[in-house]
Amino acid sequence: MNITKKFIALPIALFLIAMPSKSDISEFGFEALSIEDITFVGVGYGQIKNNIMFGASYATDLEDAFDVNMFGLSAGYVFGDHEAGSFYTSVSYADSDLTDGEGGLSIGWLKVAKTGTSLGFSVDDDQVVSLDIGFDIGMDRKISLGVLEYTDDDIDVDTAVSIGFSAYF
User: Fold this and answer.
1) Residue 76 to residue 109: CA distance in whole angstroms
2) In angstroms, what CA-CA distances link 60 with 20, 28, 57, 80, 102?
3) Is 146 exposed, middle or buried (0-12, 13-18, 19+ CB in 10 A)?
4) Residue 109 reports pLDDT greater than 50
5) Total tally of structural domains belonging to the chain
6) Eight-state DSSP code of residue 21
7) Domain range for residue 26?
């Protein structure tokens, strides 16, 4: 392929990969998360607008022996239509009473829509693999199940399981 064809094909390929989503979506949710013997409850807000993702969350533990609060922010980009399913990348910042604040990078694939089943898979730079599935229960509401697997040997936590409820608007 000569150089002229490459310069013509490259913008077309980038347009197909970074195709804008058909709609914007906002979500507010509640979630319960169990990590080892500690149960957390939290609230979160997420939005995808013009392929830009933003999220914020806060969680606290339910145990009497601990007093742990967690806060997180994330921003990212979806490389296609989130309703049909697309790859994404994001940066995040998390802080808790147990650790100092730290940032992170993740890549993944997601399918998020107000109706139908939602799916998500990601891997981050701390070697955390996550899988989420959301089941449509009508009226732009979903019940979700999630699993986080900590694969890094330096982290003492193995698996976290969550269940949540989300409303889209």
Assistant:
1) 12
2) 36, 17, 10, 34, 18
3) middle
4) yes
5) 1
6) P
7) 3-168
